[in-house]
What we know:
Strand content: 25-35%
Shape: globular
Strand order of the largest sheet: 3-4-6-5-7-2-1-8
Number of strands: 8
Amino acid sequence: MTTDTSGAAAADPENTLYMDLESGRVTIELRPDLAPKHVARIKELAREGFYDGIVFHRVIEGFMAQSGDPTGTGRGGSDKPDLPAEFSDANYGRGTIGMARTQNPNSANSQFFICFKDCSFLNGQYTVWGQVTDGMELVDGIKRGEPPRDPDHIVKMQVAADAK
């Protein structure tokens, strides 16, 4: 295991995601311990380039930023089958990332949201699959709206182990 300049142990690159925005890089710790199927899906889609160029189509002040829909409408997803819920007792705090879904708990596919602040009212109702560990100030800067007039987008999303 390598260490960074602060002396802290480096994160597991296979379970770290880089989400590049126009404003910079957001680092996400993946949580396969909580949601192995969802983490596998996110990594699979990232490796296929699915998230590259996708907009944040629903961004609510004081709540969350949502992305992962290739249509930009909030109604789309990947061509892969929906996932069964992997609910846990993990807290939806600032920077927590969960899978968006319909009323059906087993309908998560590719859309996800990042909480701007404590969203513990979501605990146990949505699958937690990640946590922003660096760059949350960049997430805070995503344009608000449902949808935003000029939405921000994901420039590139990649698994750190694959980053060049």
